């Protein structure tokens, strides 16, 4: 995650006064740190990743950044297996940085998880500029284009595409 995208993510979490955030794709914890900085002091980040060793690294990064252990809940597993177990309308923000082939499923789960006025954010939607290239593209880029179209055409969302990092697709749930 670029510094600009991280700053935008922090701002978005603060804008919705996030107390409960779900993150798909823990990675090394960089995006989680930005989210935690933007969240309310009593907020909890629930982060899902199929690789437990990544989550362990992120746990250490959160601790080094000064966050108490009760500020993050780590759930190992595939996002589409874990997300259905999370509470309906229980989240202020859902950040999606997982498998691009599953982005439409993440969108559906996010709509269920978000409270009205909540925000869904997808990272990497420019796919290094490939989403606007006219030539043949790999399946993941085709899927990102489908995501962009679905968000744009949804009556349940107010979307915006932020040109920071590799693109942040943001949408507020009506």
UniProtKB/TrEMBL annotation:
GO terms for molecular function: O-methyltransferase activity; S-adenosylmethionine-dependent methyltransferase activity. It holds the Pfam family Methyltransf_3. One of its GO terms (biological process) is methylation. Keywords: Methyltransferase, S-adenosyl-L-methionine, Transferase. The keyword Chloroplast does not apply. The keyword Methyltransferase applies. CDD domains: AdoMet_MTases. PANTHER family: O-METHYLTRANSFERASE RV1220C-RELATED, O-METHYLTRANSFERASE-RELATED. This is Methyltransferase. It comes from Streptomyces griseoaurantiacus M045. The lineage of its organism: Bacteria, Bacillati, Actinomycetota, Actinomycetes, Kitasatosporales.
